[in-house]
Structure formats: C-alpha cells, structure tokens
Amino acid sequence: MEMIGITEYVDAIATSEDCARGKPEPDVFLAAAKFLGVDPSECLVVEDSRNGLIGAKRAGMCCAGFGGSQIPAQIELAPVSFNDYRAVSAEDFRRWYGEQRVGAAPITEWLRDSGRLE
Predict the structure, then answer these.
(1) Which of 6, 11, 23, 70 has its CA 20 to 30 A from that of 44?
(2) CA–CA separation, 104 vs 110, rounded Å?
C-alpha cells in the first residue's frame, strides 16, 4: 500500500491471521467489512487470485481483478479487471462498484450461470 501511495485511504486491514478459514471461504472479506463497520454489499474487493475472487463473491461483495501483481494472475472470474494501479482512478472504482450493484444476481446464481462455479 505504501508503494502505490494508498495507505492514507485504508481504514482497516484484515488478513488470514484474523480468520479460521482461508480463501476461497469469505471469512477474511467478512472480517474486513466488520472492521470497517459496513455491510459486505457496500464493499469492492480488488483481488489477484481466483480463490480471492470467489471468496469476495461468496461474501456478497463486488470485485475487480488485478492482473499486475508478482503472483500469476487468475482473474477470469472478475467482472472487471485492470493491470496497473496508475491507470485507474477512484472514479473507476466507484463506477465498477455501481455497475455490479445494479441488478446484481446472488453470488451462487451468478457463478453458476457464468459457468464459473465448479
């Protein structure tokens, strides 16, 4: 977060150490929402892994895939993705959140209908 200059915008951090189960279970995402005092449906998760995207969706959160990390990206489940934080703005994140909230199907239905649920 320090490297990309967003530390001042982060109000809470949740890690696997805060949860009993790891991704793709939604626990870490639900913990983050709880730490922030917001409903999971009010969150947009940026993830670079398939399991993370599944966990975010299971938590009832919107998500964006990040394909520019050092970890090989597996972001095919993301409704939207990007590769460079310098190329996106806060407005992009707001738009992505809004697009996913309007008429959003429940997560299981969305995953099943898109052929992404195994």
Answers:
(1) 70
(2) 8
The strand pairing partners of 63, in sequence order, are 45
SS3 96: helix
- Which homologous superfamily does the CATH classification assign to the domain defined by 7-113? HAD superfamily/HAD-like (3.40.50.1000)
Which tokens in the block code for residue 41? Answer: 């449906």
The domain limits of the chain are 7-113
- Cα 63 from Cα 66, distance rounded (Å): 10
Give the CA-trace dihedral at 12, 17, 22, 28, to 10 degrees.
-20
Single-letter amino acid, residue 3: M
If you write DSSP's letter for every residue of 47-81 in order, what string do you get? ESSHHHHHHHHHTT-EEEEE--SSSPP--TT-SSE
Q: How far apart are CA 7 and CA 9, in angstroms?
A: 5
Per-residue pLDDT of 47-59, as tens digits, reads 988 899 999 999 9
